[in-house]
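We emphasize that the prediction below concerns an isolated chain of 571 residues; any contacts that depend on oligomerization or on bound cofactors are therefore not represented. The input was used exactly as deposited, without trimming of termini.
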Amino acid sequence: MIAITRMRKTLSVLGACSVLFVCATFSSAAWAQAGYVHEVSGLASIQPASDKARPAKAGDTFEADTTFRTGVDGKVIVKFADGQVITLGESSALRVGTYRYAANDARQSASSLDLMKGEMRYVAGIIGTANNEGVRILAGESMVSIQKPGGADFIVSVHPDPKEIGFTVVAFGEIAVRTPYGPVHRVANDEYAPWRPGRTPPEPLPFAAAPAVVQAAAGELWATVLPPGAPVTVASAARTIGAIAAVTQAEVAAKTDPRLAGYVDAVANTVTMQRGSGGSAAANVGATFEAGTSFNTGADGRAVLKFTDGQIVVLGPGSTLTIDQYQFDPNNTKASKSVVDLVNGGMRYITGNIQTENHEGINITAGASIVDILTTGPADFTVVVNSKDPDKQQEIGVARVSLGEIAVFTPYGPISKIETDRSNLWGPKKSPTDPIPVASALAVVQAAVALQQAELPDNSPVAIASAALAAAAQAEANKAQALANANPENAQLRAAAQAAVDLASATTQAATAAAEASAANVISAMLGTLPPTAAGAAVAQIPASPVPGPVALVVPTATPGAGGGCTGSRC
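Result of the prediction step, given as a token string:
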């Protein structure tokens, strides 16, 4: 026991000397981030050397001299810059001691770990594969060493009180263990080696001969899905996994909040939103909204809103829109509804799944007029109304149809049908079929044309929480790119831009997966309503824009709005 304690002190001194030597050769910043938390379940904490413990969460980064602890139901997976992966089991404590990774020189790299109690699975990275002598692992009062280059994958378990009991199981590679009771010189693939007080450690046994409790504990750790063992840029990988975890958490939250109607996909200039009777706030990209929310685009604002069922609304400058009612159940679209009121201004409206499956559930008003979609299939149209007078008796309006057919019931009489590629005007003291003054018509017509030119997301159903996060991440990536490309010599800005790109890519992938799951639910529900022998008609949709992928580090091309650029995934 005394010998092992002395060994631990010696290792600590050697580790400190190694750090001093390396710092003389490399910048200390190179070792700042050792790794990141890849996954957390149950109760787990992270404690840097100079700070108090806090709950661990996916995406946390850590440096050398950081301690992780798990509760009775906890588990933590951490990944290091060189690709080394540790899975810490329940009721365990692990301290990351020295860690440094030189990508171009494995001999200058080192990693030391101290499993104070509990169980961990260790999978070697570049350091353990190319420089096995650079890896030091303490487990209680024991020391584990990788015996040869090529890597290793093993489990070690120690329970120190009152006297240490431990075991190791090797899945790949070859290790040795110096225990308080004597050495275990070699544990190879599929072998199990125990140690306990009062006896010399026996020769390793086949894992199949291990006690059932050991097989169960090891089996649980083997079954855990681990990240790939390739080296990573810690900050970028942490942002990516943090984004994925955030999407997952958001989706869980969204399932408990069915009120969510949609999210802000893109914004240009200043747009505000007001939820119910509350105060107004900026409508930022990624903001979610529910029924009872109003949007105001001000003099030069513009916004793209996407709803759960895929319905899309584009608001032009000088517009006010209220989401009076919205309810979408992909498993019961017949009970779904959407009621929107364009109080003033311009709106492009693209139908979603509610229109396809429940034509009667769509209600649209524009100023003092009512818009009725005549076709049961998809529709894409623009309506602009100028009705700022209090009694709305001087309304001027235009409707343009890109797909489908609509009718408009104006204050001056009905327009019974507006077909694809047609438009109609209406104004005061004239029947809707009569022309209105050119000067009056010009402004609303131009506004309608401008709204038709926007690039938009596709109109398939989405999981709102994850789609909102993806849109927000994309907006941040666009901003970071603009800064980086405006300052090409600034490495910090370029690194921040790359991290933002990784974040946007991760959230987009997660949102796409969630959207596909939502679409699958919709299709399943639709097919369930068909007779057993019927194939059913295909669900017609507006041609979809490609799902945005990772953002390249180039100068972003902003789509100009009225007086400014566009922020978000599209505008």
